[in-house]
Amino acid sequence: MLSLPVMISHGGPVLWLILLIGAVALGVFVERFLHCHRAQINSLEFLNGVKTVLRRENVIEALSICDATPGPVARLVKTAILNRDNGRERVREALEEAGLAEVPRLEEKLNLMATITQIAPLLGLLGTILGFIQTFMKMQEAGLHAHVGLLATGIWQALICAAAGLAVAIPAHAGYNYLVSRVNSIVLDMERAATEAVNIVSEGSAAKEA
What we know:
Layout: H1 4-11, H2 13-39, H3 43-55, H4 59-68, H5 72-82, H6 88-107, H7 110-142, H8 148-209
């Protein structure tokens, strides 16, 4: 099996570009994975804790819990608490606005991942074509005296670039789909939490009026 240094030395300039975007894809995946990991909390447990505190009419403690809890769910609940005296409809509107602001944060850099999954195999194809162009140029120059050793460089470049493009695109595509599923899961949690938050602050307002 070929070692990595040998492959790099025979891959040509396009291979370096493929390796670069592969490193970018890895960096984006790790950063987004950690972001999603921090953003996804046990929303049911969190909401129950906030609900218990609000029943004691301790709004400051409820806000402190929201501030201490990472992720968009906690920020949505905080928004609901801050707007609790403005009526149920206003709370809903505030949560919708806050939710629209949170989703782009979750989806940040996913377009970059999607772009890399699309261009990596195309770069591999470009390297393959350039490698074969180099091979045919050497064949033309050598004429009848062409031999395998003379043509090997271009063939190496063609095959290595094709393999590298696929090697980057396949895991990048899998990573992109995984991140999209995590984001969808968090958005679903946000929707459920927003509905529950409206009910929680409405109960508190009703109890206060009573």
